[in-house]
Each structure stands twice: as structure tokens, then as C-alpha cells.
Design goal:
- With 235 residues, the protein is mainly α.
- Helix content is 73%, strand content 6%.
- It has a two-stranded antiparallel ribbon.
- Helix 3 packs parallel to helix 6.
- The longest helix is centred in the middle third of the chain and has 45 residues.
Length: 235
């Protein structure tokens, strides 16, 4: 039987003399972004129309739980000084990744199974790490590259640049492996056997692993930025 890993090219476009293909990953990522934007619009309207003298119920209660949980997580890992500046970024990052990871449940190919998605996310975090390091430690950031002795300079530099590589590869490899395993199961098993049996695997590959990887990526982002800024910035 044919095994489909859900990577297809839909249209070739020319930009600046270079050819690019619009693939499944682009389409699925666009769908995820539309869903998140719609969620944000609905959430904004619900919050604006809420009666703050009454106990929140329904969707508003879910929003408050989500915000409070993320705020507590960020404050616990980054401290009260850094946390306010990173609440929006870390929360958005977590929601984007977890939505991408869970999109496989709805027949999409998770955008995070494409390295072209995970690497830019890790690079954004990498530049934030470097910026916060120089902002709070100033020349101490450069000095740290020579510790504990001068000979460790190459090792420390490699360690700095290994951060975005390891973060992006961890997320990419875990989601891609789950996508490939599910593709093999659906492609090799008889159609009758795929009606109910793969549900347990979806629960692990998409739900458990997807939520875990989103949590790990967000957690590493917070820890790396907080460590780069130092104890003084964490309060």
C-alpha cells in the first residue's frame, strides 16, 4: 500500500529571481494562524463585554485560567522583574506550538514537523537570549565566554550557537517522528483496522507528545533567557 507523509508541493512562485514551492507546511501553518487569530478576536470581544462584577463562566473562565496559569509559570521561571516583558511572547509561543502540534488530530500535517518552522522560532529565542545577556550583564556577557579559563572560549561559543540548533531539532524531530509513524500506520494497515486502533497512538503522538514538546520549548526559552540575564534581572 502507498505511504503518504503528507508533504506536497501545490504551487511554484518566483520571488526575486528565486523559485519557491508553496507546500503542505505553508498551507497548514496558514490554517493554524487563522485559527489563532480567530481565537484572539473572539477572546478580545468576550473580555470587553464581560461583567466584572459577576463570577466568570464558560469561555471567559477558560481564558482567565489560561492567562493565570501562563503568568504563574513565567513568573516562577523568570522572576518578577523579567516576567512582565516576556508574558506576551512566551504565551504566544506556547499557544502557537501547541496548536501546530495538535493540528494533526484534525487531519493537518503539523507545521512543526517542518524544520523551516522550528528553526526560526528557535532563532528568535536565541537573539532574545543574547540581547538580554548584553542588556543586564553588559561586558560581563563577553567575560563569561572566557570562563573558567581562556582556553574554554571556543567551547563556550559553540555552546551559545548550539542552543537554537538543539531547541529546533528537538521539537522538529519529535513531531516529525510522530507524523511519520502515523503515516506508516495509516498507509500499511488495512483501512478497517485504522478506524479505531490508531486513536490510542494519536493520544500519545499528537496530544501527550505535542503538549509536552510545546511545554519543553517554552520552558527552555524562559530558562535560557533568565540565565542569560542573571540573578539581578530575575528579582
Amino acid at each position: 500500500m502507498e505511504v503518504d507523509f503528507y508533504v506536497h508541493g501545490y504551487k511554484q512562485v518566483q520571488i526575486g529571481g528565486f523559485s519557491f514551492w508553496i507546500t503542505t507546511s505553508h498551507v497548514c501553518l496558514a490554517i493554524v494562524l487563522v485559527v489563532l487569530i480567530a481565537f484572539a478576536i473572539v477572546a478580545n470581544r468576550v473580555i470587553k463585554n464581560a461583567d466584572y462584577q459577576k463570577t466568570p463562566t464558560g469561555f471567559l473562565n477558560v481564558l482567565e485560567l489560561l492567562v493565570e496559569t501562563m503568568d504563574k509559570l513565567i513568573v516562577d521561571n523568570m522572576g518578577r522583574v523579567l516576567a512582565p516583558g516576556f508574558r506576551n511572547y512566551v504565551s504566544t509561543l506556547f499557544l502557537l506550538i501547541i496548536t501546530c502540534n495538535l493540528s494533526g488530530l484534525f487531519g493537518l500535517r503539523p507545521p512543526t514537523a517542518d524544520y523551516g518552522v522550528t528553526l526560526p522560532l528557535a532563532l528568535i529565542t536565541f537573539f532574545m537570549i543574547q540581547y538580554q545577556g548584553f542588556k543586564w550583564q553588559k561586558m560581563g556577557k563577553i567575560k563569561g565566554l572566557f570562563e573558567p579559563i581562556f582556553l574554554f572560549l571556543p567551547v563556550n561559543i559553540i555552546s551559545e550557537f548550539a542552543t537554537p540548533v538543539s531547541m529546533s531539532l528537538r521539537l522538529f524531530a519529535n513531531i516529525l517522528s510522530g507524523t511519520m509513524m502515523m503515516a506508516l500506520i495509516y498507509g500499511l494497515l488495512p483501512r478497517v483496522a485504522t478506524i479505531a486502533w490508531p486513536a490510542a497512538l494519536h493520544a500519545y503522538m499528537d496530544v501527550f507528545s505535542g503538549v509536552l514538546q510545546a511545554y519543553v520549548f517554552a520552558m527552555l526559552t524562559m530558562v535560557f533567557i533568565a540565565n542569560a540575564a542573571g540573578d539581578e534581572a530575575q528579582g
